[in-house]
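Predict structure. Chain length: 223.
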Amino acid sequence: MFDRLALPRVLPFFTYLFFILIADVLIWAGYAQEQLRYLYVVKIGVVLALLWLYRRHYTELAWPGPALMGWRAIVWAVLAGIVVLVLWLNLGASWMVIGASAGFDPRSGNGYDWPLLLARIAGAALVVPVMEELFWRSFLLRWLQSPNFLAVEPSLLRFRYIVITAILFGFEHNLWFAGILAGLAYGWLYVRFRTLWSAIIAHGVTNGLLGVWVLMTGQWAYW
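Prediction complete.
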């Protein structure tokens, strides 16, 4: 699973999770959430560096991939991203949630910490979708079907593996039920349009618009 072909898609994701673990340990050790805000910048910076380091391995992202998607795929990706956002904001019943999100508050004093705020939005909308889709859809979804995952054609992926991946993706988030539906939507886009960019665009739309909504409402727990 962690061979030289899988590592470029696995390592950025687990590095991201490792930083979440570091934050949890530091909070357990007595650090306040506010003291750890810039840990997010470090986390995104390290993940971005890994993505850049392994960029030649991501053949499914090679240009002109996005340009060749076609307007139908782009429209469906944007619509799916918006639908997932609506679900994310409305599926918060107690049984649909695991634990509580610490959230992310970019305010400092009487205003926003703009460098931190911009890093958060850019990280969530641009870096995280690429990192997560490379792991969940490009790697794990295809690997479940065949260890030779790079040879798996997206349109031939079996439905049960889409569901398994979506469930695991959902439980990565505290809003696990909405996360499962999001995973199904992104997986469907990948299979339907046979390009990882469709899932990345949808994921980016969801995260980007969620950031705008959080700023407008001050509901920091959604971050």
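Summary: The longest helix spans residues 114-145.
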